[in-house]
Amino acid sequence: MRKQIVVALALLVSTISFAQKNEIKAAEKAIKSGNYADAKSAIQSAESLIGSADAKMKAKFYFLKGKAFYAAGVGSNDDMDTAIESFNKAKEIEAQAGKLKYTEDINVLKGQMLNSVLTKAQTLLQNKDYMKSSASFEKAYKMSPSDTLYLYYAASTAVTAQDYVTSLKYYEELRDLGFEGKGFQYYAMNKETGEEELFDNVVLRDASLKAGTHIVPKDKATPSKSAEIVKNIALIHVSNGDNEKALKAMADARALNPDDLGLLISEANVQLKMGNRDRFKELMQEATVQDPNNAELQYNLGVIAAEAGENDAAKKYYEKAISLDPSYTDAYNNMAVLILSGEKSIVEEMNSLGTSSADNKRYDELREERKKIYESAIPFLETTLKLKPKNIQAAQTLMNIYSATAQTEKFKAMRARVEELEAGN
C-alpha cells in the first residue's frame, strides 16, 4: 500500500511539471507573436504551479513574466512594476544558482524600460503634467536605484505640482541617502540645428557622437544640491506649520556643513518666512562675514533695517550693495524710498502749523527741507528708471517730484513717458 502511494505522488509531480512546461511554452509563443494578453494569461495559469519547479524553470518563468508584463514598452504603470519585480526575481534566482542564462537579456530589457520611462517623464514634464512626471521619475529610480538623480527629479517635479507630501518623502529619502547631486551633465552640438543638447548619460551622448549626428562634446560639472534639498525640506515643514522640524532640518545640515553659505542663507530665509526677523538679521550678518562682496546680502540687510526703522543702517547697507553691484536696480529704488520716507514727518508738521508769521517762517523752512529730500532722491530714481525703463512706479514718482520742484521740462517729458507706459499696460 505504501508503495502505491509513492507512485501516485510521483505521477502527481509529473503532471504538475507537464502543466508548468505547457503554460510557459504558451507564454513564450505568445510573447514572440506580440500577443501579450495571452502571454499574461498563460503566466497567471502557471503562477500557482511554479513553487515546485527547479531553479532553471523558475528563472525562465520570471524572465517570461517580466517580458509579458513589459509588453515591449506599452504596459501600464502597474504592469511595469510587475515586470521590474519579475526581472529582479529571475536575476536573483540565476545568481543563486550560478547560471546566468537570462541575466544579460534582462539587463538589456531593463535598459530599454528605463529609457522608455525617462522619455515618458520628460514628455510629461514638457506638457506640464508634473505629478505624472514625478511618478515616472520615481519609477526610473526604482528601476535603477544607483541613479539617485532620478529621485531628485521626482521630488522637484512633485514640488512644482504642489504635492508637498510626496515631495517631502522623496527629499527626506535623498537626505538620508546623503545625496549631493554632484556629477557631470553631458552635452554635444546637434549638427543639423547647431544647438547644444543635453543627454541623459554619457553613453547616449557618445553614441550620438559615434553616429555623426552630434559634435563638440562638453562635460559640465553640476554643483551640490544638498543645500537645496535641506532648504526645501525645511520650507515644506514651514508650509505645514511644522516650524520646529524646519529649524531642526537646518540645524542638522549646518552642523555637518558649518561653512556652507547656501545652508546659512537657507536658514535665514526660513527664519524670515517664520517671522523671526531678528534671527534673520543675525544670520544675514553672519553670511556677510563669509561673503563680504555679496551685494544681495547687503541689500537684504538694508530691507530688514528699513522695516525696523533703522534708516541710517539701511542707507549704509544699500550704499554697500550699490558699490558692490552698480546695476542692482532694487538697491537704487529702495534708497529712493528710504530718502522719501523722511518727507512724512515734514508734511505732518507743515499741516499742523497756523498762520502766524513764525508759523509761516517755519513752513518755508520745512518746504525747503522737503525740496532737498526730493532732490536727493532724484538720482536714485533716475538710475532705477535707466536700469528698468518700464518701472512705471519710479516714473510716476519722478514726474511728481519734477512737478513739486518746478522742473517743468523734465515734468512734461516724464508725464509723456508715464502716459506711454500706462498705455502699454
Q: How would you characterize this protein structure?
A:
This protein has 425 residues and is mainly α. It folds into 4 domains: 2-101, no CATH class; 183-222; 227-320, Tetratricopeptide repeat domain (Serine Threonine Protein Phosphatase 5, Tetratricopeptide repeat, Alpha Horseshoe), CATH 1.25.40.10; 343-424, Serine Threonine Protein Phosphatase 5, Tetratricopeptide repeat, CATH 1.25.40. The chain is built from 20 helices and 3 strands. It has helices at residues 2-32, 36-47, 55-70, 77-97, 103-126, 130-143, 149-160, 164-177, 202-211, 226-239, 243-256, 261-273, 277-290, 295-307, 311-324, 329-340, 343-352, 357-387, 392-404, 408-424; strands spanning 183-190, 196-199, 214-222.
Q: Find the count of extended strands (DSSP E, 2+ residues).
A: 3
The fraction of residues in strands falls at: under 5%
| Rounded Rg | 35 Å
Structural class: mainly alpha
Any key phrases for this structure?
elongated, Serine Threonine Protein Phosphatase 5, Tetratricopeptide repeat, mainly alpha, disordered N terminus, 4 domains
Task: Show the helix and strand layout.
Layout: H1 2-32, H2 36-47, H3 55-70, H4 77-97, H5 103-126, H6 130-143, H7 149-160, H8 164-177, E1 183-190, E2 196-199, H9 202-211, E3 214-222, H10 226-239, H11 243-256, H12 261-273, H13 277-290, H14 295-307, H15 311-324, H16 329-340, H17 343-352, H18 357-387, H19 392-404, H20 408-424
Antiparallel strand pairs: 1-2, 1-3
Helix pairs in contact: 1-2, 1-3, 2-3, 3-4, 4-5, 5-6, 6-7, 7-8, 8-10, 10-11, 10-12, 11-12, 12-13, 13-14, 14-15, 15-16, 16-18, 17-18, 18-19, 19-20
